[in-house]
Every structure is written in structure tokens, then in C-alpha cells.
Give the backbone structure.
Amino acid sequence: MPIFQIFTNVPKASLPDGFVGKCSDVWGGLIGKPKQYTYVNVLPDQMMAFGGTQEPCALVLAGNIGKFGKDENKGYTEKLTELLGSIGVAKNRMYVVFEDLPAENVGHDGTTFPFMKL
């Protein structure tokens, strides 16, 4: 159950058509989870500053049940940096925050993941 949120000051009008779908494909593909469980939320037009300026910047929150570690996160960051670069955010103007979510703390379809038949 990959969760992927982008907060950015890039204007909505500057995002290419299909950007949310592309995010879903990229994050779901990286984390190796079915698209049916991938949640994506892109929040453009945010009032944000990074490094004291309001040039294009972003905060990415990436959560999942497992699949995180030092080497994995480095690889994910490289790919997500490329993704955000496609909307004009420089690699030194974003943070990517990973959160490994315990399955028992994630609910879906009236239950939690340990009780789901996947």
C-alpha cells in the first residue's frame, strides 16, 4: 500500500497532463506493489520556500509497508528526483521522506493489512 504525496510550489497549470498517473506508475513500480493499492496525492500551488527562496521546490512523503532501507531509499530518491525534475524542481530543492508503516497501522476496505487476503 504505497502512499505518495508531493507538496510543491510549482503551479498546477505547469504540471503536464497525466502527471498524477505518471507518479502512480513510478512509485508503484519502484516499490513493487500493485497499482490498485497505490495512493498518490499531488498538491501544487503550495506556499513554500526552500533555502530561503521560493524558486520551485518540493517535499515528497513516501510511505509503504516494508521495502525501505539505506540502499533502497538511495535508489528511490534518484528516481523520484528525476520525476520532480520533469516539473522543474531542481534536485537540491527537495526532500524525500520515507516512512515504513507497520501493517497493523494501515486500514483499507474495512480491515487492516494483516487481515487482508492479498
